[in-house]
Design goal:
Elements: H1 2-12, H2 15-21, H3 31-41, E1 49-53, H4 59-68, E2 71-76, H5 79-92, E3 98-102, E4 116-120, H6 129-137, E5 143-148, E6 151-153, H7 159-169, H8 178-182, E7 189-197, H9 203-221, H10 226-246, E8 250-260
């Protein structure tokens, strides 16, 4: 009976908790390539301190630390995601370099002033993105970098797909245009930008990813029951399938944005 209750809790958990419970490698738009672009174009070094907002299981912050040997801290509302982030950090990162806490990013305050803040694709899901940006730049001393990878709509998403995505993910996918998304960041100097479209994965690619992720989760649970594997796999595949079908309607932009206290809110460099 207890095993069944645990399984039911996993497969019925809210999407962010499900990600944490199975320790899904929750990447930013553009995946590992985005993380390397952030590192390369924002001058992250061993003296950098990075704060990640909505860090889920800690992938972006952990990979940046591996590249630059920096320090950092992450925050997320999901307890299971934070538990996974801390386990991953303890297994993969030098002791004490990173810390992850459960909390609301809208009221969170970092332990140390950051040089860089990672928002990934999460900013648009806050109730007031501009208010959130104003809060984040208050974490900096006099300057710093925002590392973002926002989604934008390349064309209208069909209503039935929007409804399905909201039911599966618990959030409504971004429906606003590139220019509307970029208006959230209008006060910053754009140090680097790469706009990209998304290519759908094949069914075999989705199956390979889901089987790999669930097999790793089963080791975490120390469980080899086929019914448990199947239940978790079915939900993960449903998530990956709906996000894959959104891809023809979406684009994303990898951004390195510079905050300078003296110039913030102005623009002297043309956009191309």
């Amino acid at each position: 009976m207890q095993d069944r209750l645990v399984l039911d809790a996993i497969v019925s958990a809210p999407y962010p908790d499900f990600v944490g419970l199975i320790n899904q490698t929750n990447v930013p738009p553009g995946s590992l390539s985005t993380v390397h672009q952030w590192a390369n174009y924002s001058s992250i070094s061993s003296s950098s301190h990075i704060v990640e907002i909505a860090c889920t299981t800690g992938f972006s912050l952990r990979e940046l630390q591996k590249i630059a040997k920096c320090t950092g801290e992450g925050v997320d509302l999901s307890g299971p995601a934070i538990d996974a982030a801390n386990r991953n950090s303890q297994r993969e990162i030098s002791s004490g370099a990173l810390s992850f806490i459960k909390g609301d990013a809208t009221v969170f305050s970092p332990l140390k002033r950051p040089t860089h803040i990672v928002v990934g694709g999460a900013l648009g899901f806050f109730p007031d993105p501009k208010q959130m940006i104003d809060r984040l730049i208050g974490f900096f001393d006099h300057n710093g970098c925002i590392l973002a990878a926002p989604f934008f709509a390349r064309k209208p998403i069909p209503d039935d797909l929007l409804i399905e995505a909201r039911d599966v993910l618990g959030i409504t996918p971004t429906q606003i245009s590139y220019k509307s998304v970029m208006s959230h960041y209008s006060g910053f100097r754009v140090l680097y930008e790469q706009r990209s479209s998304l290519v759908q994965e094949t069914k075999s690619e989705l199956i390979h990813y889901c089987r790999s992720t669930v097999a790793r989760a089963m080791k975490l649970f120390n469980d080899d029951r086929p019914e448990v594997f199947s239940a978790i796999y079915d939900r993960l595949f449903q998530i990956r399938d709906v996000t894959n079908r959104l891809r023809p309607f979406q684009g994303f932009s990898v951004l390195v944005l510079e905050y300078d206290q003296e110039e913030y809110g102005t623009r002297y460099i043309e956009l191309f």
